Amino acid sequence: MPSWLIWRVVESSEPKCLERDGETSLGTSTRWHEQSHIQIFDALWKAIIIMGDIYDNPGSQVLRPAFLAHVVLRTPDRASFRAMRDFYTKFLDADITYENNVLCFLTYDDEHHRIAIGIFPETTKRVGKPAGLAHIAFTFRTLQDLAAAYRQRRNLGITPFWCVNHGPTTSLYYRDPDGNELETQVDNFDTPAEARAFFASKEFEENPIGVDFEPEELVERLRSGEEDWRIKKRKNVGVRQGIPGW
Predict the structure, then answer these.
(1) What is the pLDDT of residues 158-167, one digit of tens each?
(2) Res. 220: pLDDT tops 70
(3) How far apart are CA 103 and CA 100, in angstroms?
(4) What is the DSSP track for the chain?
(5) CA distance 52 to 49
(6) Which pTM was predicted?
(7) Where are the domains of the chain?
(8) Greatest CA separation found in the chain?
(9) What is the signed CA dihedral for 146, 149, 150, 151, rounded to 10 degrees?
(10) Which residue of 19, 27, 175, 234 has the smallest Cβ count within 10 Å?
(11) Do the domains spanning 68-125 and 134-238 agree at the CATH topology level?
(12) Mind listing the pLDDT tens digit for each residue in 82-127?
């Protein structure tokens, strides 16, 4: 149980107070005299009871995780390992937080690692269209950031194989040296509720894939000063089926 929930009632002739780790209240001698404070205390006490029961009577609805932490990629040998490591340090401008002869951790934010790459000698190269993970997606804050990262990667010899406005996102797809597919995207709507509403639209039902575009066209539209919302708005091209290369 979290330490901040370990409270207990202190019986006294005065109004109830709280005690934590043998000390009254939150490390002080503060007394809870007012009714509102007692109500807060009652709510905390009920929370303790619930937390105490959750292990014996957990129910069948699983607690949701806080966030998706990282992705681990298998690679077959030392040469592939080096190629994958070098690719992701460039592709994400990632920092290496740990590396030995068979394992590498990389991150691009405050998390200790977002991508892990490991040598698994029995791993084989992707052949055909195997079942499993389709792609890993990375979100940028703005269209400008997405386009700038595209140009920066292009200067490093990394180019997308598919650029598409899905409707909810504007996306560019890449492949790493082992053939794993990567999506870089920006949200087209300001809120998740708007994106969900688009999922429920007839337009999305007819075309859940999207409308392709040229990345250089995106850059030129941004350079011209065109408003972001106009660029993000997906053209209605009617029914579409099938994904290029998939």
Answers:
(1) 999 999 999 9
(2) yes
(3) 5
(4) --GGG--EEE--SSSPEEEETTEETTTS-----SHHHHHHHHHHHHHHHHHHHTTTS--SSPPPPS----EEEEESSHHHHHHHHHHHHHHS-PEEEEE-SSEEEEESSSSS-SEEEEE-TT-----SS-SS--EEEEEESSHHHHHHHHHHHHHTT---SEEEE-SSEEEEEEE-TT--EEEEEEESSSSHHHHHHHHTSHHHHH-SS-EE--HHHHHHHHHTT--HHHHHSPP--------TT-
(5) 5
(6) 0.77
(7) 3-53, 68-125, 134-238
(8) 77
(9) 130
(10) 27
(11) yes
(12) 999 999 999 999 999 999 999 999 999 999 999 999 999 989 888 8
**Cβ–Cβ < 8 Å for 185, 140:** yes
- Class of the CATH-defined domain 68-125: alpha beta
Tokens linked to 68? 């998706």
With tokens 């409270």, the residue in question is 7
Q: Which two tokens stand for residue 153?
A: 């990667």
What is 134-238's CATH number, 3.30.410, 2.60.40, 1.10.287, 3.10.180? 3.10.180
Q: Look up residue 76 and give its two tokens.
A: 């077959």
Around Cβ 3, how many Cβ atoms within 10 Å? 7
